[in-house]
Amino acid sequence: MVASGALDRHPRLKVMVAEGGCSWIPALVDRMTEAYRQHEMFVQPKLKREIKEIVYSQVYTSFQHDKTALPIMQATGYDKVMWGCDYPHLEGTFPHTQRILHELFEDAPDDVRHKVTIGNFDELFGVKTPERLAA
Fold this sequence. Notes:
Pfam families: Amidohydro_2. Belongs to the metallo-dependent hydrolases superfamily. This protein is mainly alpha-helical. It has one domain (6-125): TIM Barrel (Alpha-Beta Barrel). Helices cover 47% and strands 8% of the residues. The chain has helices at residues 6-9, 25-39, 51-58, 69-76, 97-105, 110-125, 131-134, and strands at residues 15-17, 59-63, 81-83. It has a 3-stranded parallel beta sheet with strand order 1-2-3. β2, α4 and β3 (81-83) form a beta-alpha-beta unit.
């Protein structure tokens, strides 16, 4: 969707890569950017925006157990990240969800914690979480 120019042509289009983790996104963006630079003369269509800008603004990802997700998010600026428990699937966090949440988010600033657990969901799906749940 990036290389075809679809996301570039439709900047309000949002894409969700669910249950695939998120730590790989910045590395893939770096690789795609380098490949585009090396082969730009052959690439059609030409992109109007940088690959990083396209992906970082339009592609959302989710994770469950990934302890590298938040540090990579904070280090790279890629912040379209959502946490999910994947209940009731066996690979989800249940019945250890509370412990895992504490482990993953114990050092995260409040704004990051909110963005990853509620804010990006609201943004992606155009909903407003009730204040009682948002606190």
